[in-house]
Recover the amino acids of this structure.
């Protein structure tokens, strides 16, 4: 087999995690429904491993340039990584990022397990300072939902100088947009629910690491806690991963074009778009205008979550758990792979009607 170094990401996405090319082998790794395996091998029991998970892990590991472990959800992956932090140690994290991550951190802090320092994503000097006595530095870039970008190399340098580990939640960028391990991070977390699986039909998570020892610790936690993915879910996520490069290419082109047009629309105060990827956020004047816009779309689905082939949108602060710095009128757009003219026509009419409704 070729080493991953020889192949480009679009080829890895299609070819990795398959059975060997031997006569009568299936082309795709089958869905192995098994709670236990015949004794004497390395797998033994269904909580400790499964060939279908392993196929997904092989493909994602190669794309990220490390070794992957699949989990039952993105938040299960977040949980095992935060569990690496010893009692009383400090975690540095973004002041606004995925709210489930912030809720887990708040819960750990409330129970006296860890202390946390929350830092605005783009304030690199504050990150560098906060790293000094940290054990774990949590990055999410681009961040949810404001799409701010961290200075990863500068923060990695400061964290490592202080002996802290760095984890990057790479859900928004995907391994095609950025490979955090190559930027010096120690761990990568994914909600595979989003772009990796890509069809809004699966909940799954993953952690990817460069270091074999951390992999073994995390695998031990997964064995013990049982936050394992379903076999069908792992199969669907790998099937989705096959087309990630194609989906992202179209969705990113759509996002770039929509970001350009949205900047010209009179209802839009600000477009938040990091210059690549398929996530865009817009600041509308207030919550009422934002709610009116999300109610007025016909094609775009008003829903939470992101990263599917279909375009979706929501006002993030409809969730009380969203970080206080997120503007009330911010609408997050997950741009799909539809025809961009249809997407624009629907979005433009929804914004026009929200604006007219507010003025009238
Ligand atoms: C959705 C999401 C998560 C949590 O993943 P689940 O699969 O929903 O548990 C974590 N991080 C980011 C950035 C997300 O968007």
């Amino acid at each position: 087999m070729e080493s991953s170094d020889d192949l480009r990401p679009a080829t890895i996405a299609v070819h990795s995690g398959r059975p060997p090319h031997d006569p009568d082998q299936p082309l795709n790794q089958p869905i192995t429904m098994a709670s236990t395996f015949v004794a004497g091998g390395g797998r033994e029991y269904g909580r400790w491993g499964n060939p279908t998970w392993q196929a997904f892990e092989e493909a994602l590991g190669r794309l990220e340039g490390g070794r992957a472990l699949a989990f039952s959800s993105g938040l299960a992956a977040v949980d095992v990584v935060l569990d690496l932090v010893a009692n009383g140690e400090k975690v540095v994290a973004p002041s606004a990022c995925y709210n489930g991550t912030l809720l887990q951190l708040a819960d750990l802090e409330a129970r006296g397990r860890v202390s946390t320092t929350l830092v605005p994503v783009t304030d690199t000097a504050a990150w560098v300072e906060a790293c000094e006595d940290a054990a774990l530095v949590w990055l999410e870039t681009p961040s949810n939902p404001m799409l701010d970008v961290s200075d990863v190399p500068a923060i990695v340098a400061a964290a490592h100088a202080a002996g802290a580990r760095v984890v990057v939640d790479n859900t928004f960028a995907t391994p095609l947009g950025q490979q955090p391990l190559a930027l010096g991070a120690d761990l990568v977390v994914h909600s595979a629910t989003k772009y990796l699986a890509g069809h809004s039909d699966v909940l799954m998570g993953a952690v990817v690491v460069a270091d074999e020892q951390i992999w073994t610790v995390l695998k031990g936690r997964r064995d013990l806690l049982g936050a394992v993915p379903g076999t069908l879910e792992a199969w669907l996520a790998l099937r989705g991963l096959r087309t990630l490069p194609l989906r992202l290419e179209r969705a990113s082109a759509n996002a770039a074009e929509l970001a350009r047009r949205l900047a010209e629309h009179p209802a839009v105060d600000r477009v938040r778009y990091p210059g690549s990827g398929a996530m865009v956020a817009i600041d509308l004047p207030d919550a009422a205008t934002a709610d009116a816009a999300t109610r007025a779309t016909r094609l775009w689905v008003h829903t939470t979550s992101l990263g599917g082939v279909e375009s979706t949108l929501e006002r993030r602060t409809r969730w009380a758990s969203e970080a206080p710095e997120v503007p009330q009128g911010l609408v997050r757009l997950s741009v799909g792979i539809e025809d961009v003219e249809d997407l624009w026509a629907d979005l433009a009419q929804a914004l026009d009607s929200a604006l007219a409704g507010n003025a009238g």
User: Anything to note?
Assistant: The pocket of pyridoxal-5'-phosphate is lined by residues 73-75, 98, 100-101, 140, 144, 169, 171-172, 191, 193-194, 203, 205 (CB under 6 Å). The chain has a mean pLDDT of 97.
